[in-house]
Structures are given as C-alpha cells and as structure tokens.
Amino acid sequence: MEKQELAEIRNHLGKTQKQFAQLIGISLKSIKSFEQGWRNIPTYIERQVLFILVANQALNKNTKPCWVIKKCPMAIRQNCPAWELKAGQVCWFINGTICKGKVQKDWSEKMKICRKCKVFKLMIPLKESRKQENGG
After folding, report:
1. Strand ranges for the chain from DSSP E
2. What's the average model confidence in pLDDT over 8-25?
3. Same domain, 69 and 136
4. What is the mean pLDDT of the chain?
C-alpha cells in the first residue's frame, strides 16, 4: 500500500489522522509517518485498513460473490477458502484463495492480482487502485 492510498482511505472514511490512528490501534505518529512516506506501511496495517474500508462499503452494497463474478467452475470453488467460508466479497482478504488458477505464495503476490480484479475494485473503489491498473 502506498502513502496516497492510505490517505485516500482515511479521507474517504471521513477521519482525521488522530481518529484513524485510534480506529486501527496505532499511534498518531505512525499514521503521520506512513502518510509522509517516512515509513513503509506494514502488511498487517494494510490488511486492517482495507478490511475496515470494505466493511464500511459492504453495508452499502449488494455485491455478488467473487465466484459468480469470475465464473469459477465448481471444481475450483470447492477448493477455495472464499467459497467454503461464503466470503466472496472479501476473497482478496483471505489467504489461500485460488486466483488465476492457483494459490498465491504470499500477501504481496496475491495483492498484485487482487488490485487488478473486478471484485476488489467493486469493494475497494479507490482512485489509487484504478491509477495502478492504468499504469499511472
């Protein structure tokens, strides 16, 4: 996650830096350093921030599950944790999902695929994600 995306999510949620820090359980100094680019945003913070955003978005959406959107065959569905957990709107959050025909080895590899995926974009409609897809 890049600093601009973190700031965009915070602004989308209508939170000050202090409120956002309290929401995700870290210091105000950490939020400031992430948004200024002084420190890299750790994976556990990225996951938590995206989950909070999608929880906020999910209340306002009636989105189909990923396996319907992606038209996954039953053989893939039955081996995918997103289908097993009936969590098709947050498949991007769950490790071990079968994306592009295989399980990705780690979070960063998975998120490279997820950020380009229609399901992710429906649930996480951020300018930064659209910009990355368009090569900007």
Report:
1. 98-99, 102-103
2. 90
3. yes
4. 85
Q: Indicate if 75 and 28 belong to the same structural domain.
A: no
The arithmetic mean of pLDDT across residues 49-57, rounded, is: 79
Query: 64 vs 61, which has greater pLDDT?
Result: 64
Contact 89, 58 (CB under 8 A): yes
Task: Select from 67, 62, 63 the least CA-distant residue to 81.
Answer: 67
Distance CA(61)–CA(73), nearest Å, equals 25
99: DSSP letter: E
The answer on 35 and 7 residing in a single domain is yes
What residues are paired with 102 via a beta bridge?
99
Q: Which residues of 90-126 are buried (b: 16+ CB within 10 A; e: fewer)?
A: bbbbbeebbbeeeebeeeeebbeebbebebbbbbbeb
Sequence letter at residue 135? G
